[in-house]
Each structure stands twice: as structure tokens, then as C-alpha cells.
Amino acid sequence: MDKKRFTISVFTEDVVGILNRVSIIFTRRKINVESIAASESEIKNIYRYTIVITETENQVKKVVGQLEKQVEVVKAVFHTDSEIVHQEIALYKIKTGVLASGGNAEKIVRSHNARVLSVETEFSVIEKTGHKEETQQLFDELQPFGILEFVRSGRVAITKPMKTLSSIVLQLEELVKN
Amino acid sequence: MENLAIKTNIRKQLMTGSQAVVHSLIAEGVDLIFGYPGGAIMPVYDALYDVEDKITHILTRHEQGATHAAQGFARATGKVGVCLATSGPGATNLITGIADAQIDSTPLVCITGQVTSHLLGTDAFQETDIIGISMPVTKWNFQVTRAEEIPFALAKAFFIAKSGRPGPVLIDITKDAQFETLHFDYKPFKGMRSYVPTPKLNLDKVKEAATLINSAKKPFVLFGQGVLLARAEKEFKEFIEKAGLPSAWTIMGLSALDSDHYLNVGMLGMHGNYAPNKLTNECDVLIAIGMRFDDRVTGDLNRYAKQAKVIHIEIDPAEIDKNVKTDVAVLGNAKESLKALIDLVIKKEHKDWLENFRKLEKEEYNEVIKKELNPKAKLMSMGEVINKINLYSNQKNIIVSDVGQHQMIACRYAKFKQTRSSITSGGLGTMGFCLPAAIGAKMGMPDTQVIGIIGDGGFQMTIQELGTIFQFKTAVKIVLLNNEFLGMVRQWQELFFDKRYASTTMVNPDFQTIVKGYGIKVKKINKREHLEEAIKEMLSYEGSYFLEVMVGKENNVFPMIATGASVSEIRLK
Questions:
Q1: Which of B27, B130, B172, B313 could lock onto B186 through a cystine, CB 3.0 to 4.6 A?
Q2: Is residue B335 flagged as an active site residue?
Q3: Any catalytic annotation for residue B126?
Q4: Does the pLDDT of residue B5 top 60, yes or no?
Q5: SS3 content of chain A, % helix, strand, coil (to 5)
Q6: Which backbone phi and psi does B560 adopt, to 5 degrees?
Q7: Where does the Thiamine pyrophosphate enzyme central domain lie (chain B) (predicted)?
Q8: What pLDDT does residue A164 have?
């Protein structure tokens, strides 16, 4: 079976150590986590982890089964790129002089629809959101001008299927009551 | 359960965290715990001192012994095993037992002391990150840093340990939380949204399974510990009898059915019986109940039961399709699932199919079993010792085995007539498991004959627990099958490493002198003519008894499925 890129969304209770419990499931199977992002979800006290890995579908299914088995994991699902809307954010620190010199750098920033987040005497910070390929392209084009620092966030993704987390949580809460 | 707190007359009472620990245990109905004191857990020990009439603490000689004893207790009784240890080395010493409990689904609650909360992360004396260390091998764990968290954390721990697919839970309590005071109010834990212990039974799946079973010409049941954990022995028996299903147990499923039941076709796996392994690749419907298709059961997965439709009756959704692709998955507790299935299956006998098992059984008997039970060699075989225990006991013993050749022989030849009467380290294969586990089993079932079957290797891994037997006068029977070798590894070296016996020869001390020093009645035999009398003496002796039997040094366990081979390639020699 071929390996593909999958985005795993893990919904957890807000407790200390859950990140560790989630990550050891990957470590144990020697699966490299390509990106990870975490934040509170639309429901208070439920956290959402977005994890990107490249694996066979068979292995991803098993991993998601193991994730969902964890006591404090509310729900875990996996999707291919076509089943999600996803985005990353990248920040680039370059010398302000490069932008101000009237050269190509400014054009490149404009053509990528990136925005200038901050201008200081010595350096400026550019922000670009997009898919990894897009932020990478801007990186490649700016590199000749000298990039002082670069950082890219993990992928965040919204799934296309309409089943909502609240409905799942509601169902689970009913189960506890009965 | 709430009444328990009222009964103990401590509801809403102001007390210290350590007192809350012991009163939570009492509220959970715990009356026996295993452990070892040390700095960071001393307040809890001090609180235990006041409730000695309610909770008996068994001081093992090593924390590993405490976990295995708690496992033995849990496996024999079906209750949650509890152990107590201090921080640092005390806590890390629990890990082997916790890992064993995790892979064999044994309910444990382990409580560890931790350094005072302001010292966390400072490399304080006896500080170790036991939450981090135990995370991969616990079903759940939690660190308590405030006394008021204690009753809730423990209630949740017990709930998680015993519900659904059971497993070990660890609660780490900082020393300041043990000293702090709280208003004790114990409420049993009722569940949480992120944890569904038992999936709701889907009756459509049950119907699909029944249709497959009813249409099968050669149905075959594989059953594991799930039957025991769900207390589904009765339903299981009724189910297989009604549908006429030949049934094989995994090592963890031993004793869920009478050994001599006409549909019990023996043990699966690497050193299991010939017929069930061979016929796995001939059946048309494979019905797996409360088992997880361990690699030692399946051999080469690419050549495992490919011809069969697979039904998997299982409580843990993560087990479905993990190793073997399932056609019909029935998620739920084995008892509920089987109850629903019994009504839907048609009464059948499958006489011809069963006859196939009988034929292969005969082959195995002539090639292997006869020779193992009635050997011609001068030195005794392990099998004949087990057989004599069968012969001279009522077969209602709890047999606790260690890991290695003697374990395979004990599991193959011991007769089980009572549920929960085989206790062994199945998944992890932990040498040193037997002695402490036998102690725990005996303490949980004091009126049952508990016999530990142990090799000379594993015996020396937890030999210190002889001290526990001595102190608590635990009337366990220990049969040491001494071949002066690490027998199973030696067997592999003989078969697969060109007889290069690297580090498998044991130069042993005089076990008789050692065990005698612990006040245990001892006997050593090396002649067959003394075996019967020695076994009889051991079985009728009231206290603890240590019987050392010198057995053939280079005997092998057969049948055997070599690593990478298919189950149908099981060899008789």
C-alpha cells in the first residue's frame, strides 16, 4: 500500500500530559510527525490537535484507533488533503534595506499577497499564509536577498464533512448520563 | 458505593491527603494491598497504620514483586489489584509489572509517592518523572499535587482500571498533597465523555455473525481472556455447545472452559496444540472471541486463515483489523455479545469437522504427548511432573507459571476445571512473574490450592519474594523444574543458532538451603520413583512447600511454529 499525506485531527480534554500521550503513539511506531498544531476548539475545554504524517492508509487507521482509545481523547479522525481546507502561516525576517531599496524584493512580497507585519530600522517581518508549497516558494524567492529568520507554523485544517464536534460531544455526554 | 462512605462515618470529614488515600481505598472495597515504603510515600504508610483492621498491607521484597503480586491477586479474584511504592526507584521498579498488566489487560491501581510539588523538575532526591515513564504502559495516569484532588483521582482510577478492557492506572501523589488537609467526600466515578469503556452492541452485526456461523461447514472458535474478563464462561459454553463449535484457547484464555470439554481442542500458538494451529488454515469461518491475534498465535499473517471469513467479537475497537482483517466485527462485552448470539445460532454438531481435530490430536499424542508424559529417558520430563499434579489433585488448583519452557509445558498439560485458574505472563513474557504472582493469587484465594510452576532462571529473578512468603506465611506450593539451563533460549540456540549455547548455562546455588532459610518446607527429587510421593506430600502439606525437580537438561518443547512460519507449518519434532 502506498504512503500518502494524511491530516489527523485529535480532540482531547484539556489536561496536562495529553500531548505526550498523543505523541508516543507515533513515536512507538516510528512515524515522523511532519507538523503539529494545537489550540482550543469551538467547544470550551476541548483541544484540537492537527497532525500531519505520511503513511499508508492502513497504518493511519490503526494509529487513529489507538489515539481514540486514549482515555482523555474525545475523538480522532483522519483525512486526505482533498477532504480538508488547510492553511499554514510563515514569518520571514529580512533586512529593511532590502525592501526599501526599490529592488525586486518588494515586488516579490506583493506578488505573493504577503503582508508586511512590522518594519523596524534594521529589519522587517513579512507574513504569508498559505499551503506549505506557497510559503516555501516565497522563501525560495526571498532567499537571494538574505533571510535572517524564518518560521512556519504547523498545518491547521478544517474538515469538509458536516458532522460537527458538538454533535459528537453531545452524543458522548448522553452516553455517560445513561 | 456512596453508602460506603457514610458507613465508614467519614463523609465530609477534615483529614490529610494521606488519610484520604486510605479512605478512598476503603470506599472502593479494597482490603489487601501490596507495596514497599519509602520517603515520598511515608505519610500514606502512616495513615495505613491506623486502618490495619480494614486494609492489610503486604510488604513485598521489591516493588516489582508488589506489582506481580497485585496482578496475581487481580487475575485470581477479578478485583482490582492495588500497589503502593515510593518515588524514584520505587516507582521505576513498578514498570515491568505495569507493562505486563497493560499488555495482559489486568486491572491495577498503582499509587506512587512523589517529591514535594515545589521540587518537581529540580532533580530532587528520589525524583523521577514517573508520569512520563509510565505513560506508554498505563491505561491512564495522573499526578496529584493538591490533597483535594485525591478522592476524585482515585475514584476515576478505579473506574478506568476495571471498566471496559481493564488495565493498569498510576496515580502519583506529591508529598505535600499527602500532608495537606481536605474535606473528604468520596463519590464513585460515573464516567466521562472522552471514554467509552464498552461499545454499545450492534444487533445487526450480531445477526451478520450468526448468519455466517449458521452457514459454516467448518467453523472454528478462538477464545481469549476476554471471556474471563467479561465473566462470560457460562454464555461461552452454551454458545459453542449449541452451535457445535470446536474451540481453541489462547494462553490468556486458559481455564475459561473445562480442559476436558469435548469442544475444547486445545491451545493456539507457537507451542500450542497441533490440531487447532493446523486447522486454522482449513476452517471456513473463524470466530475470535476476546482475543487479539497476537503474533505468537498467528505466525505469518500473510498465510493466516486466508480461506476463512473472520468474525471478531471484541470490546476494544482498536483491536479490529489490527492484525487480521475482519469480515464481521461485533464490538462489545463478550457476555452481552454471546448472550445475543446464542439465540440466533442454529443447533448443530459438525461431527465430521470435529473428527478432523481428533485425528490430528491422535497424531500429536503419538508423536509428542505420549513421550512427554511417559518418557523413557533417565531424567524426568517437565510434562510428567505437571501430569502427576493433574493426577493427584482435584484439578481445581490455580496454576501460576513463569516464562519459558516450563510455562509452555504447564499451559499445555495442566488441567483446568475452574475459571481464572491459570495465571501467567502471556503478552509481555516476564520472567520472574510467577513467584510474586502466586503469592498474590494465594492471598486473594486463600482456600484454593495455588501452585507456582517455575524454572531455575525465572525463580532467581524474583527469588527475594521468598521473604514475603516467610513473613506472611503464604501457603503457596512452588514447583521448581530445574534443568540448569535457560531452557527456551537454549532450545532456540539448538534449533536456530547451530547449538551455540551462549550464556544459557546456569550454575545454580543450592536452592534447598536458600529456600529452607526462609522457613519453607523443601524437597528435591531427581528420580522418577520419588515423583508421585513428593507431589502427594506437597499437595497435602498445609503450609508453603518448595519442590525442586531435576528434569532433562536438553529437552525441547514441541509442537512448535518457527518464527516466520505459517500456523499450518507447525512441527511435531
A1: B27
A2: no
A3: yes
A4: no
A5: 40, 40, 20
A6: -155, 140
A7: 206-341
A8: 81
Query: Contact, B35 vs B85, CB < 8 A?
Result: yes
Report residue B202 as a C-alpha cell: 450492534
CA distances B393 to B251, B388, B419, Å, are 22, 8, 16
Residues of A whose CB is below 8 A from B131 = 17
The answer to whether A57 contacts chain B (CB < 8 Å) is no
Residue B63 a catalytic site member: yes
Instruction: Find the Cα–Cα–Cα–Cα dihedral B143, B149, B151, B156, rounded to 10°.
Output: -50
What b/e string do you get for B185-202 counting C-beta neighbours within 10 Å, with b at 16 or more? ebeebebbbbbbbebebe
CB contact under 8 A, A66 and B196: no
Subunit contact B321:A61, Cβ cutoff 8 A: yes
Stretch among A168-172, B333-337, B382-386, B510-514 having the lowest mean pLDDT: A168-172
Residue with cell 481514540: A68
Structure confidence by residue, pLDDT tens digits, B362-382: 999 999 999 999 999 999 999
Residues in CB range of A115: below 8 A, 6 or more apart:
A126, A127, A128
B195 contacts in chain A (CB < 8 Å):
71-72
Distance CA B230, CA B431 (A): 27
pLDDT bin (cut points 50, 70, 90) of residue A174 is confident
Tell me whether residues B320 and A65 touch, CB distance under 8 A. Answer: yes
Range B152-162 average pLDDT: 98
Angle at B413 between CA B411 and CA B418, to 5 degrees: 70
Cell digits for B561? 511454529
Q: Is A166 helix (H, G, I), strand (E, B) or coil?
A: helix
Alpha carbons B492 and B489: distance in angstroms, whole number: 5
- Which of A74-83, A164-173, B78-87, B233-242 bottoms out in mean pLDDT, i.e. has the lowest? A164-173
3-state secondary structure at position B566? strand
B488 is catalytic: yes
Report ipTM (2 d.p.). 0.94
Identity (one letter) of the amino acid at A64? V
Taking residues B402-416, report their average pLDDT: 98
Tell whether A133 is within 8 A of chain B (Cβ).
Answer: no
Q: Which residues in chain B are closer than 8 Å to A74, comparing Cβ atoms? A: 193-194
| Contact criterion met (CB below 8 Å) for B418 and B396 | yes
Domains of chain B are 2-184 (3.40.50.970), 203-357 (3.40.50.1220), 378-550 (3.40.50.970)
d(CA A15, CA A35): 21
Contact A175 B196 (CB under 8 A): yes
Range(s) of chain A covered by CATH 3.30.70.260: 3-85+156-177
